[in-house]
Design goal:
Elements (H helix, E strand, L loop, with lengths): L6 E7 L3 E7 L6 E8 L3 H15 L1 E8 L9 H17 L2 E6 L3 H11 L4 H25 L11
Parallel strand pairs: 1-4, 4-5
Antiparallel strand pairs: 1-2, 2-3
Helix pairs in contact: 1-2, 3-4
């Protein structure tokens, strides 16, 4: 679980943009930050370094694109290269996270919000980052117990 006051950053990595989301200080919920245009490895790292400092980030989660059969595809190679680069530049734990279907889910959420095609295109990477981060945060807590479920 996150240390109180420190947050986790999630990145939905694309070739032209990256969607960003950050956890609350307790590590329970994910909130979208913004979508950043990618401008080059050094400038991208510098902008991420600013976010890490501003939000007191202690860990970064990066969406790892997998095929539906679980195999890594060509986009995954680019994500893994990015992960190694920012791990070295930010000096933080950077964890790949299976992002299968997050873009489709983000599209569904935005369509249900009745956003125009242009607005959906503007927000989809940010919403995908929120979904990636929320999935990671939920995994830290394990299966949820309800009052009618016996405790293990």
């Amino acid at each position: 679980m996150p240390i109180a006051g420190e947050r986790i950053l999630a990145i939905d990595l694309g070739t032209r943009r990256m969607g960003l989301a950050v956890s609350d200080e307790m590590g329970w919920t994910a909130q979208g930050l913004r979508t950043m245009d990618r401008v080059g490895p050094k400038k991208d790292a510098a902008r991420l370094r600013q976010i890490v400092s501003e939000y007191r980030i202690r860990k970064v989660i990066v969406g790892l694109p997998r095929n539906m059969n679980g195999q890594l595809g060509p986009q995954a190679d680019l994500a893994l290269e990015f992960i190694e680069r920012i791990k070295n530049q930010l000096r933080l734990d950077v964890i790949p996270w299976d992002e299968r279907l997050t873009t489709l889910e983000a599209e569904r959420v935005l369509m249900e919000a009745d956003l125009s095609r242009a607005k959906r295109r503007e927000k989809i990477d940010q919403v995908a980052a929120v979904l990636i981060l929320q999935g990671y945060l939920d995994s830290l807590r394990g299966p949820m117990q309800t009052s009618d479920q016996p405790e293990a």
